[in-house]
Amino acid sequence: MATPLVRAVEERFPEARVAVACRRYAAAIFENGGARRRLVVYGGDGVWARAAAVRRSRPPGGFDACLVAPPSFAAAVVAVASGAGRRIGYGGEARSALLTDALPRRDYRRGHLSRAYLALLERLSGETIAEIPLPAVAPPDGWRAAASRLCGDRSYCVLAPGATYGSAKMWPRLRYAELARRLAGAEGLASFVVGGAAERAEAERLASEAGAGARSLAGTLSLGELLAVLRGAAVVAGNDSGPVHAAAALGAPTVAVFGPTSVEWTAPRGTLECLERVSVEDVYRAVVSLLKGE
After folding, report:
1. Architecture, CATH, for domain 143-291
2. What gap in Å lies between CA 267 and CA 258, rounded to an integer?
3. Which of 203, 111, 213 is nearest to 154 (CA)?
4. Residue range 259-266: average pLDDT?
5. What are the CA-CA distances from residue 181 to residues 63, 191, 202, 235 (Å)?
6. What does residue 221 show for φ and ψ, rounded to 5 degrees?
7. 245/231 Cα distance (integer angstroms)
8. Which fold has domain 3-125?
9. Contact 232, 151 (CB under 8 A)
10. Cα angle 97, 100, 104; round to 5
11. pTM for the full model?
């Protein structure tokens, strides 16, 4: 969700060097952004470890500005450690005192999340951003070779059946299995199931139910390898999850089955239905439409 903000900052300040501070697991999302972009990767998960990493990275005199995307107290502490003359973020609780520009917290969930992030840049630049840039993630170097090594040379689809906030946002596993069987039989596609280590057992169960043309990669991939697999896919289908958002940002054809959350706030763009009303036929038709380039 933050990639449109990074892209917009770099477009509006073409002479500036831009530092992106993030956790190690997310670093691959922001790599390959060109010579002007620098990553500050946190050495640990605690707030003081993050603050120390940013403090060590700051140039003489500190940064000119820090756009604080997460609305947490910890993120505001990290902003102070940056030494930035302007620290722009969403207020609330005790963090407002740590910001030079505190936007109303209620605006954070008004509209799409990427729009909320762009409002930080609008405050800095004094300009209105009429159109939200599409999320954009550059695939890792050598992604084709990595995708071939992990998935072979046969065309394949990626299934992402997990979801961060539990089963209420998950399209049923058996429907994914049926979708994989249909894609194998009618379109000749292999299927690879992706997800985190905690989702490994469920992903392996899905792959077994989907038949011989399916295999689980859940819990086995680095983020860079996951990005390579997503980029190489003929199509990606999944729930509201990190892999689905990453696939869309990579430019891979993507079908998102969205569950009970704010569509306006976090959804990839598209027409969305309640999970119980989404049939295998619905998703299959959407997938085939993308495969045909429609």
Report:
1. 3-Layer(aba) Sandwich (3.40)
2. 7
3. 213
4. 56
5. 53, 9, 17, 15
6. -105, 145
7. 12
8. Rossmann fold (3.40.50)
9. yes
10. 75
11. 0.73
Give the dihedral of Cα atoms 150, 156, 160, 161; nearest 10 deg: -120
Q: What confidence tier does 108 reach under pLDDT thresholds 50, 70, 90?
A: confident
Average pLDDT value for residue range 126-146:
85
228: pLDDT confidence band, cut at 50, 70 and 90?
very high
User: What values do phi and psi take at 100, rounded to 5?
Assistant: -85, -30
Q: Which residue has the tokens 């993050």?
A: 50
Mean pLDDT of 154-166: 86
Contact 95, 101 (CB under 8 A): no
Q: In the predicted model, is pLDDT for residue 271 greater than 50?
A: no
Residue 154 burial by Cβ neighbours in a 10 Å radius (0-12, 13-18, 19+): exposed
- List the domain boundaries for the chain: 3-125, 143-291
At residue 168, does pLDDT exceed 70? no
Q: Which residues, 6 or more positions from 267, have their beta carbon under 8 angstroms from its beta carbon? A: 112, 240, 256, 258
Start-to-end Cα distance in the chain: 26
148 with 225: CB under 8 angstroms? Answer: no
